[in-house]
Structure formats: C-alpha cells, structure tokens
Specification:
Order of helices and strands: HHHEEE
Radius of gyration: 16 Å
Distance between the termini: 21 Å
Strand order of the largest sheet: 1-3-2
Shape: globular
Structural class: alpha+beta
Number of domains: 1
Number of strands: 3
Helix content: 25-40%
Number of helices: 3
Length: 144
C-alpha cells in the first residue's frame, strides 16, 4: 500500500505519522528529497530525521507556545517516539547527562560541517540540547 503525502502541506507527514499509534516496523518508506551536490548523504538524512523528530515532539507534547519541555518527557514518551521511528526503519538514540556524567563527543559534525567526509555515517551525527533542568539531551539516529 502506498500513502501519498501532499508536499504542499508541510505538516502532512507529521500528522500522518503521529496522529495514530505507531505503525508496523518498516511500514513507512521515506523518500529523501534531492540532496544538494557535495552534501554528505548521511548529514542530509540526519537533518530530515531530526526535523521529523522535533515535529513529532511538538505534535504530541507541545505547550500553548508550541514548545516542548524536554524535562517533562517520560521514559514512556521516549519509547513511543522510538516506536514511531521504527515504522520508518530508523533507530532513535537518546542520551541524557547531568553535569557530573556529561561526556563530550567529538567531533560534532552537525556544528562543524567542514570536518565531514564521505566516510561519515548517519550514527556519527548528533544534536544536543540543554533542558531547563541543566541536563544535556543528545539525540542520534541509525538504520535498523
């Protein structure tokens, strides 16, 4: 079965993916838009997956200002997001650090894109955000 999402409606995919329970593993096939020349394919995938993740968080748990407080996400919320991503055949990795357990990860290819080579894989990209509780939240993705 093929599901067509209207590209004119930017939230169409987010609504399709997150408006119901997670679908079966690998049941949704993503089509990657044209990748700019000389751009690392895995960086492009990472950016697309991060946009979907943030869109899903906002769709499910945003406040009246459209923001999501990471510190209020429960383990159940995180597991639910992982199941949603399994439906598009990707794994979500979330690491949470407090000030005493924070582990620097270098290089941060997302911030230092000049260090990216063709050999850099999807699971080497990550994004970090600090919560209102001073914890650091790190997200990365990988293929299932």
């Amino acid at each position: 079965m093929t599901t067509i999402i209207d590209e004119e409606e930017p939230d169409g995919f987010i609504i399709y993916m997150f408006d119901s329970e997670p679908k079966e593993k690998a049941s949704i096939q993503l089509e990657c838009p044209d990748i700019p020349p000389k751009k690392n394919v895995h960086l492009h995938l990472f950016e697309q997956l991060l946009m979907i993740y943030v869109g899903g968080l906002k769709h499910l748990w945003s406040d009246s200002d459209g923001k999501v407080d990471l510190t209020k996400l429960t383990e159940e919320n995180i597991q639910l997001m992982k199941r949603y991503f399994e439906s598009i055949d990707y794994e979500v990795n979330i690491e949470v650090f407090d000030l005493s357990t924070y582990q620097f990860k270098f290089p941060d290819y997302f911030k230092n894109q000049e260090k990216i080579t063709d050999a850099i894989m999807l699971n080497e990209f990550f994004y970090e955000s600090q919560g209102s509780d001073t914890k650091m939240y790190r997200i990365s993705f990988d293929f299932l």
